[in-house]
Amino acid sequence: MAERASQAQETFLVAVDKETGKIAGFLNGIATDEEVFRDEFFTEIHLYDPAGENVMLLGLDVRPEYRRQGLAREIVRQYAEREKKKGRRRLGLTCLESKVEMYQKFGFRDLGMANSTWGGEAWHEMDYQL
Fold it and tell me: 0.90 cut: is pTM over it?
């Protein structure tokens, strides 16, 4: 994560609580021209292409005390808007079965089971057309 933050900081979006200065949540990804999500996006920063048409989302995190308030939805909305303005075409991600419905509510479509084996889990591949 630290390497990604230092080399691809423009693909991060952080939400900060204005009252406390505490990070409430963040979303990060990696720009690429690739169409299919692969596990190596998590570990191989050389796959990052600043001019890539797509962004593969690698993590949406919201602190527990900020959940169920619409923050994740707003972070994703602002991220999508920002990336569309940059000329990107698509956001992609993988998620666990338990998160498919949430991402569908955000406008993502479920592409079925991913070829991912990250963490020994079964993942759905999803995308959002910008």
Answer: yes
Q: From CA 106, how far away is CA 116, in angstroms rounded?
A: 22
Q: Which element (helix H / strand E) includes 2?
A: helix 2-7
Query: What DSSP designation does 23 have?
Result: E
Over pLDDT 90: what percentage of the chain?
87
Tell me the mean pLDDT in the region 37-64: 95
* Measured distance CA(24)–CA(26) in Å, rounded: 7
Q: Assess contact for 11 and 50: CB atoms under 8 A.
A: no
What type of residue is 18?
K
> What's the pLDDT at 3?
80
**CA R_g for the chain:** 14
DSSP 51-107: T-SEEEEEEEEE-GGGTTSSHHHHHHHHHHHHHHHTT--EEEEEE-HHHHHHHHHTT
